Structure prediction request, 221 residues.
Amino acid sequence: MERKTAHKTAGIATAGEGEGGMTRLPKLRLRGAWGRRLGVFCLGLSVLLLGGAGSYAGYTYLNDNFHVVKAGSLYRSAQPTPELLAEWKQRYGLTTIVNLRGANPGAPWYEAEKAAAARLGLRLIDYRISAKRVLSGEETSGLVSLLAGLDGPTLVHCMSGADRSGIASAYYLASVNKAGEEEAESQLSLWYGHVPLWFSPFYAMDISFEAAEPGFGYLDS
Prediction:
């Protein structure tokens, strides 16, 4: 039987939540962090013109986009299949899944994941955020609180593993692991299939990280 987990922080649920909508993004602010991301993008674009990055980006979307964030603690991926969950539990000792798509009762992918989690003895936490909407302060604090309270190796995932998984991984490194700013924000990069440019609807994740930076002690960005 699946273990049900109750949380008081906003956005956490075990049933009845769908994926979020889209909101208007603030105007671009040219800051140090933006400059670094632009540099990463330009480098990636150069490779793309040679064909390499294009192939890799396609690979991440067509496959599981699995990556180690912090060995023994946090892993990230696209929507996992039951078979992948079983494989990753055996290989990495997973104990918990954080589903950033939110609970979607009746959806085949969600029912399959919930059944697999119950069968494998994995704790499933549903925390809905949208990749196209800037996280509110309440959503950010709730997600950070959730990540700080994780016990055991955890998989965090969204649909593609690029955007929502990226912001959660960045928050984890910044708040829980106390990593440097560049290391944390590198979780939102082309390497994972995320496009950190203002014209992308998923730039909401970059803005969300920028807004949270002072709380992580990144005061000079």
In short: DSSP finds eight helices and six strands in the chain. The CA atoms of residues 70 and 173 lie 8 Å apart. Strands lie at 12-13, 67-70, 74-77, 96-99, 123-127, 154-157.
